[in-house]
Amino acid sequence: MNKFVAGTALSLLTLSIMGCGGSSSDDSEQNPPTQQQPQATVGSAKINISGLPNDSSANITVSGPNGYSKTLTGAEELKDLVVGDYTVAVTAVTVNGVTYSASNSEQTITISENQVTSFDVAYQAPIVSSGVITGFGSVYINGVRFNTDNAAFSTDDKDNDSEDALEVGMVVTLEGAMGANGETPTASKIKYNASAEGPVSVINLAEQSFTVLGQVYYVDEFTEFDDELTFEALLVGDYVEVSAKQNADEQWLATRVEKSSDSEDIKLKGTVAELNTESKQFNIGTLIIDYSSAEVDGELANEVMVKIKASSEPVDNVLTADEVQVKTMPFAAGQKVFVEGEIDDFESASLFEVNDQMVITNEQTVFAVGKLEDLQEGIQVVVSGALNEENQLVAHLIRFKQATKLKLEGLVSEVDEDDSELELMGTTVTINEFTQFIDVSKAKVRRFRLDDINEGDKLVVKAAKVADDVVARQVKRFKVAADVNADEFVNKLEGEASAISEMGFTVEGIRIETSELTKFEADNGDALLQAEFFELLVEGDEVEVKAVQQEDGTFLAVKVEIDNDDADEERYIDLEGVIDSFTSLTEFSVNGHAVTTQLNTRYAGFNPEQLAVGVAVEVKGELNAEGVIVARKIELDSEDDSDEREAEIEGKISEFTSAQSFKIGEQVIVTNDQTEFKHGTASDLALDVEVEVEGEINNDGALVAKKVEFAEQDEFEVEGKVTEFTSKTDFAIGEQKITTTTNTEFKNGSAAMLQLGVELEVEGTLNEDQVLVAKKVEFEEVDEVEVEGEVTQFTSLTNFVVDGKTITTNANTRFVKGKASDLKQGAKVEVKGFYNESSVLVATKVKFED
Fold it and tell me: At CA 678, angle to CA 676 and CA 681, rounded to 5?
């Protein structure tokens, strides 16, 4: 098979011989042979042409015997050709600045008698595509699948590398060829250079960024981390390799981060600034580069892109380079150029930049998943076109990359390869050429695509809403069906709430119901009552939901978190990791980040005395002035989905069917052979009996009881402030003396937090001296108070008055739109905090009013 192909690809010229019939004879005595007809001496040629833009003309000349010559501008069948050899010459065609040609511009074909010879001429144009790898099989870049069978690969480490050196999330430059409408895209060269390789020097949890070699790299939902690495697990001192691209604010956005295996190999890519040829130094960002002893490849100048290699880390913010290579722009006239990124330097809809490339639009520009009026600063697009004489990219096609509105974590219920769709959480998800595929399951399929996905696989899908469709921007597989326990699985989703009712809401068509067992939480970690949650929730609020799917297809939430921060609020910190140092509850660290607690810290479902080195936790809180996370909530972190289903409820039995099925309020409780009974037996269950039930929520929304505890008849309960305090085993609430033992359970606090004025609820039994022996001590969650107005009395930073309320600050107080030294008489502030035992408002945040 031979074919003409444009650009750098092989010539594609397909020849096929189609029989047109022939004569036959049957010699016999009954039928003497007839006179022979003359044999045909001609044949035909059917020419097919592809790869050119619509409504454009080819330039092909067919010449042959007896001086035959004909020029073709389109597909045609040439008839009555004298048998023999013909030459097909293909001349390059330039359309809209792009040159389309065949690599083998001349080919000989043979016309046989009485036959039709069919051949294809495939035009292609040279292309350069710069973007992020979204998948393999061969390589997907900017939504195009490029064949890499004959491609050459180069990386920082090897000029002659292989496709295996590439990973999803890497920013690469590809050279190759393809037809005008995307026919037979083929890569000839793929080059990858890391943006940076070196030690992490700073991690900023609030801004979701880290610093390597003086460059700040931001992390977003599409930053791909290698293996078990996550942003939360990143530590100062880790050697990492970073691939990144710049956004519209000229910030580096990390697209891939992986641990570096070579801690002595320092690499950096960036733009030259403040070049000093006398001192042989220049800057990349805030880092000074000393190239006095370096091998320099290319001509250095301000604003050129360079790649640097060094053998040692920076000293006093100076990196001594071993090699400096000036990077030249790979784009040239006559090529078809692809660039992707955020729109920057937006002057108008007809003039802007994408990834440092000036782009212009005209009346011929085609728009996909958007329109001309949608162009603006910060919008993500993929642009294809050709360079003009001023090196501006004249856009032929601009495709908008829609922002993600929905994140689903669920089990696949259906895969439809024909329609490029899959279903999970009752939602049909559309797959397109821009969908990024990643497999982090045990299977670790490198060329992971839709046809590798099976029913029951656990996926996380990040999707955008395009018209009425949910379109996947990323599909990541975490477990194959064999590794998933569907009975314990908890679905998760994030998105905007709509269709809000008293007990539920909808997220992009997925109906979420809540119950008495649902845990409700504000974005700062504070617990909310069901009524409080729905009073706060408004249309369009972002919510995070963990839910079980019920028989009717709806989802029952086991936990819901609302995110309705004001636009000017600083972000709360949400950190998952392992405790790596522990001195006390007020002094420990998680993944190297210092954490402290205070009176209003909530411990979700566990005794704080369980905290120790090696314990996995999730901490929610805020950064104080010293960069310490002041925890608002701490919960134990577990990969076991069944933990998410755990819940408890207490109260009187309101409806009794049997010992195996009854209700507390409206909540159905079921027991089984594994249920543990305390202070009673199953036969003691009856209407109006008071019990406390712990268990797991099943897919019918019932609480399957692990433990049923009956209220002891001699149990006594007291609540209020501690009015006398001698020690943790000798204190009083009012007139009631209280003691604790080693078996006392502490909730929302620990024994160390007992002190005068602390608000408690104590359950226990009275001993012979009428002292309450505490079975459980529960610290009341401190209500946050808000005060707004002028400072009317100022004594010191830790003693001033606003709206008649005495206020104090401490090391954990966060200042917004100002600093502590700005506090003074007459300053207008908004203060949030909680009252201590002396009725002084302890400020957790002071916000200065404009």
Answer: 80
User: Smallest Cα–Cα separation from 131: which of 468, 380, 410?
Assistant: 380
Q: What is the pLDDT of residues 759-794, one digit of tens each?
A: 899 998 888 899 999 989 998 877 788 999 999 999
Q: Say what the pLDDT of residue 732 is.
A: 96
Cα dihedral across residues 634, 636, 642, 647: positive or negative: negative
User: b/e string for 474-493 if b means 16 or more Cβ within 10 A?
Assistant: bbbbbbbeeebeeeebbbbb
517 vs 108: CA distance, rounded Å: 79
- Cα–Cα distance between 21 and 19 in angstroms, integer? 6
Please list, in sequence order, all residues whose beta carbon lies within 8 angstroms of the beta carbon of residue 755, skipping any fewer than 6 positions away.
722, 725, 837
Burial of 710 (0-12, 13-18, 19+ CB in 10 A): middle
DSSP track, 705-749:
EEEEEEPPTTEEEEEEE--EEEETTEEEETTEEEE--TT-EEESS
Q: Which two tokens stand for residue 319?
A: 């990196």
Specify the residue for token string 């989905």.
641
User: Could you tell me the two tokens for 814?
Assistant: 């966060």
Largest interatomic CA distance in the chain: 136
Nearest C-alpha neighbor of 244 from the set 262, 271, 204: 271
Q: Which residue has the tokens 């001033």?
A: 800
In sequence order, which residues have a C-beta less than 8 Å from that of residue 119 and are 6 or more positions away?
2, 3, 13, 14, 15, 16, 45, 46, 47, 48, 88, 109
Asked if residues 154 and 192 have their Cβ atoms less than 8 Å apart, the reply is: yes
- pLDDT in the model for residue 24: 38
Question: In sequence order, what are the residues at sequence separation of 6 or more whose Cβ sits closer than 8 angstroms to the Cβ of residue 758?
Answer: 599, 721, 722, 779, 837
DSSP, collapsed to helix, strand or coil, labels residue 641 as helix
Look up tokens 């040439």; give the residue.
Answer: 78
DSSP assignment of 100-143 equals: EB-SS-EEEEEEPTTEEEEEEEE-BEEEEEEEEEEEETTEEETT
- What's the start-to-end Cα distance of the chain, in Å? 75
Q: Quote the pLDDT of residue 19.
A: 39
**pTM greater than 0.85 (yes/no):** no
The owner of tokens 């990024």 is 436
Read off the tokens for 619. 């901490």
d(CA 474, CA 222): 8
Distance CA 109, CA 541 (A): 67
The parts of the chain modelled with pLDDT lower than 50 are 1-34, 37, 566-568
Inter-residue contact 210 to 219 (CB < 8 Å): yes
For the chain, give percent helix, strand, coil, nearest 5: 5, 55, 45
Backbone dihedral angles phi then psi of residue 741, each to the nearest 5 degrees: -130, 180
Interatomic CA distance for residues 167 and 159, integer angstroms: 17
CB 429 within 8 A of CB 422: yes
How many helices (H) and strands (E) are present in the chain, helices listed first?
Answer: 1, 74
* Contact status, residue 435 vs residue 134, Cβ threshold 8 Å: yes
Separation CA 309–CA 291 (nearest Å):
10
CB within 8 Å of 522: residues ≥ 6 apart: 528, 536, 561, 562
Rounded to 5°, the CA angle 252-257-261 comes to: 130
DSSP summary character for residue 640: -
Place of tokens 């997925």: 510
